[in-house]
Amino acid sequence: MPLLDLTADVVTLTAAVVDIASESHHEQVIADEVEARLLELDHLQVVRDGHTIIARTELGRSSRVVIAGHLDTVPANGNFPSRLDGDVLHGLGTCDMKGGVAIALHLAATVPDPAWDVTWVFYEAEEVAAEFNGLGRIARERPELLAADFAILMEPSDAGIEAGCQGTLRVDVTTGGERAHSARSWRGSNAIHAAGEVLARLRAYEPRRVVIDGLEYREGLNAVGISGGVAGNVIPDACTVTVNFRFAPDRDEAAALAHVQEVFDGFDLVVTDSAPGALPGLTAPAAAAFVEAVGESPRPKYGWTDVAQFSVLGVPAVNYGPGDPNFAHKANEHVPVEHLHRVERRLREWLTT
Amino acid sequence: MPLLDLTADVVTLTAAVVDIASESHHEQVIADEVEARLLELDHLQVVRDGHTIIARTELGRSSRVVIAGHLDTVPANGNFPSRLDGDVLHGLGTCDMKGGVAIALHLAATVPDPAWDVTWVFYEAEEVAAEFNGLGRIARERPELLAADFAILMEPSDAGIEAGCQGTLRVDVTTGGERAHSARSWRGSNAIHAAGEVLARLRAYEPRRVVIDGLEYREGLNAVGISGGVAGNVIPDACTVTVNFRFAPDRDEAAALAHVQEVFDGFDLVVTDSAPGALPGLTAPAAAAFVEAVGESPRPKYGWTDVAQFSVLGVPAVNYGPGDPNFAHKANEHVPVEHLHRVERRLREWLTT
Question: Which Pfam families does the UniProt record give (chains A, B) (predicted)?
Answer without folding.
Answer: M20_dimer, Peptidase_M20
